[in-house]
Hints:
This protein has 343 residues and is of the alpha+beta class. The protein contains 7 helices and 5 strands; from the N terminus they run H-H-H-E-E-H-H-E-H-E-H-E. It is 71% helix and 9% strand.
Amino acid sequence: xxxxxxxxxxxxxxxxxxxxxxxxxxxxxxxxxxxxxxxxxxxxxxxxxxxxxxxxxxxxxxxxxxxxxxxxxxxxxxxxxxxxxxxxxxxxxxxxxxxxxxxxxxxxxxxxxxxxxxxxxxxxxxxxxxxxxxxxxxxxxxxxxxxxxxxxxxxxxxxxxxxxxxxxxxxxxxxxxxxxxxxxxxxxxxxxxxxxxxxxxxxxxxxxxxxxxxxxxxxxxxxxxxxxxxxxxxxxxxxxxxxxxxxxxxxxxxxxxxxxxxxxxxxxxxxxxxxxxxxxxxxxxxxxxxxxxxxxxxxxxxxxxxxxxxxxxxxxxxxxxxxxxxxxxxxxxxxxxxxxxxx
Length: 343
């Protein structure tokens, strides 16, 4: 009867590992997309802040130049008013001079008063002509200054338009970068999942279908009793045999994974919640779990696995996979987990 139950259990299909693999892949994709989104928001924020500062400076310059232009126009108008008054006065003086000259001609030079009046008017006329010439020079200078201010305003407006165009171009580039990163993310996740599936498939073949070596989600799980003596962290003979098989599969897979995929094999050590005796080699389960993970990593390195492709971590009793205080639950929690992931 026991043999019959074992056969029925072997014929059963376990869908849970595939579901966990899909969920893990989706979680990785979401985390990467969030990272890309935060990075793009950060870059865009810095870009927009810089553009806003440039736009503020340009608008300030335009306001200053507009104010100067208004002042120059006001000065030009005042000069034109003065010039008009001088020209009117000059015209009146010339009229008066002509009238007196006509009187003088009729009197044949007999009137000293008329001569004196003519001299005075001539002197006034000369002064007004000089003032008119100065006013004309001032108006010409104001016209040149106004033209220069208009040229500066045109240059600032052109710079403002160029800055806005660059801002739009930068935003388009950021959007395109996000799309390309999303495509690259999907490709990387698919590639890593394919190699992870190949790796676990090979481990299934070489480590057989033993009850104390199994796959849970995206992790390959060894019960501690398969690798270590009770309370110890040094691999025993059976543990070294299993790690030799693991190293062989890992070295074969390393030759197939492209160099651009920065993969690592994470080795996690876990214990049950039973406290260690005070006379042992390790003070608590933290030290024991870390020592066991490190022992596996060092043995794989001795078999040729590159050290930069391995990570060791100890979790003590704080990541159980089985609840309860029964011997069976504690046995499941004492384990070494292997996970193929990205750095």
